[in-house]
Amino acid sequence: MRGEPIPRYYLYGDQGEDVELDFLHIEAIRERSGANYWRISPHSHPDHTQVLLVREGGGVIRMEEKALPIEPPAVIVIPAGIVHQINFLAGTDGYVVTASLGCLRRAAAGDARLDVAVARPGVYPLAGTGLNTAAVEDTFTWLHREFIWSAPGRRTVIMAQCMRILVMILRLSISRDDGGIAAPNRDYDLLVRYRALLESHFRDQRSLGFYAEALAVTRARLNAACKSRAGKTASDLLHERIVIEAKRHLVYSENSVAQIAHMIGFDDPAYFNRFFTQRVGIAPGAFRREARRSAE
C-alpha cells in the first residue's frame, strides 16, 4: 500500500495555487501552533519561504533529513520546497513570516547575496552573533504591526522591514557558517537553479530545451525535479511566472494590455490575451478592472 504524499501548503493549512508576486503574511507562532498542540506535521510550501523568529520556548525542527534544536532567541529559515516538521515546546512564541518568492526578490532589490542567504535552510540562535536581539525583535514586531494596520505607506514599510529581515539572515549566515544547515537533495538544488534562470529569461525564452541545456540536464529530468519539489511541471512554473509578471503590470502600471504583452515577450497581443485568459479565467482587461475595484 502506497503512503500518503507529503502535503504542500500555501500557508500551514490552506492550499492554493494562485501565488501573487508580492504576497507576504505574518502571524504570531501561537496562533496556529497552539491550536495544533504545538506540533506542525511534515509539509512543504512550494512557492513560499518562511522565516520564524522564536523569542521564547523552543523545540525541534526537522528539515529534510536533519533534526535541529531551536534555542531561543533564534531565527529559522525554511526555503520554498523544503519539507519540514516542527515540535514546539508548549507556550513557544514569536512570529512566522510567509513570503512568496516574488516578494523576496523585490525585497532583495537585486542583491544576489540576499537571494542566496534566504535560499539556505537553517536555524540561527542569536546569541553570540553580534546582532542586536532587541533590534531583530523590533523588526518582526514592526512588520506585524504594519501588516494588520491599514495606514498610508503600509506597502512600502512592509517591504522595507522584509529587506531588513533578509539582511539579518545574510549576517546570521555569515556569523554561523554551518548554521546547522539541512542539506537539500539534488531535485531541490535543480529547482532552485531553474527558478533563478527563469528570473533572467522568462520574458524571452519559452523553450524548456533552453533551460534544460543551460542546467545540463534533460527536459525529463528537469520536469521530474519540478514535480518532486514544487508539485508542478517545468512548463507550469514558467507559465506561472509569466502570468504573475503580467498581473503585476496590469495592477501597478498604466501601460495598455498590448504594451504589457510586448514587455513580457509576446509579439502578438491577441495571443497574450488567449494565454492569460486560459490560465487566469478572465481576460487581462477584466482582471485589471476587478483588481482596481477591489482596491477602492
UniProtKB/TrEMBL annotation:
Molecular function in Gene Ontology: DNA-binding transcription factor activity; sequence-specific DNA binding
Listed CDD domains: cupin_HpaA-like_N
Keyword check for Transcription: yes
Key word Transcription present: yes
Domain HTH araC/xylS-type per the UniProt entry, residue ranges: 192-290
The name this protein goes by in its record: AraC family transcriptional regulator
Superkingdom in the source lineage: Bacteria
